[in-house]
């Protein structure tokens, strides 16, 4: 069931003229539907349940009908209660005894055109439809006009006064309304007072725990102000899903772990990451000592080349490798170096002397560049 129904503004109109014979068994009713945010329930087919209660707001129903109607662009609708076209009826409209006590109109609505109704308020019919009174009352006199019956009931005044009484003109409003009819003011919603402070553009009606008040919307679903450009180029402008800039917002970032960076990952989430996880280029220097050559000895033959493999933790095939001497080296040279396997770097050496050169204990620095 749609729970967005906030309130129903009741407008009751009756028109009376000289009644001499059978009175029409119906009267006009006009209402307006609003959503919880105050917007009109516009151009929507809904189902109404209208009940005439006897004696009080909780009195027994003397007549009930359901109707399917369509609201206007302003959420307005009109029905003739008692007329043809009702979906269902309970009891007979013509049997309502308008002369016996106060009468109340209870309005219920189902915005989904079903049979699960939400109360939209109960209001006293402040002026009895006198044509109906004349038709149904045992004290009514056939052939008398509604105006004459009104005078016979002890009222005084002109026809205009009589018509104004049907519209409740000058009578004091109650419930969620204040002032006098025909122009009362809505001062409460569901019995909760509305602040008298006038709203400004962009504000909404919000319950603050005590009263309804005009307030600027906040939260992830709110739109505040229009798109703006920050004056500082190194400041990120935060926006919500509509592209509107979020104002009056501070961001406190919890520090990340040592040697981590604040970056955006592949899921467009901003988080602290290590250089390796973020894909940054970083370097790692290792001090290595040459041992046995690939030929199984520790000596580079005279006027020849040889290859040696050294362990470098973290080396991955494809990483760039740079090797430099730890001390001055005059007996042989490094031709090239590369990552030949995980955690392994190969180095090719050249001896340009006429005698073999022993590499035992020679130390070098390996710079491993990682992506």
CATH class category name of the domain at 5-169? Mainly Beta
Number of helices: 4
* Average pLDDT metric: 79
Rounded radius of gyration (Å): 45 Å
| CATH fold topology of the domain at 5-169 | Immunoglobulin-like
Class of secondary structure makeup: mainly beta
The fraction of residues in strands falls at 35-45%
Number of strands: 24
| Largest β-sheet summary | 5 strands, antiparallel
Cα separation of the termini? 57 Å
The side-by-side strand order for the widest beta sheet comes to 6-4-3-7-8
CA-based shape: rod-shaped
What does this structure look like?
The protein is 7% helix and 37% strand. The protein is mainly beta and 371 residues long. Among the domains are: 5-169, Immunoglobulin-like (Sandwich); 282-370, Elongation Factor Tu (Ef-tu), domain 3, CATH 2.40.30. The strands form nine sheets. A five-stranded antiparallel sheet has the order 6-4-3-7-8, with no helix packed on it. It has a three-stranded antiparallel sheet with strand order 1-2-5, with no helix packed on it. Residues 6-21 and 220-235 have low confidence and may be disordered.
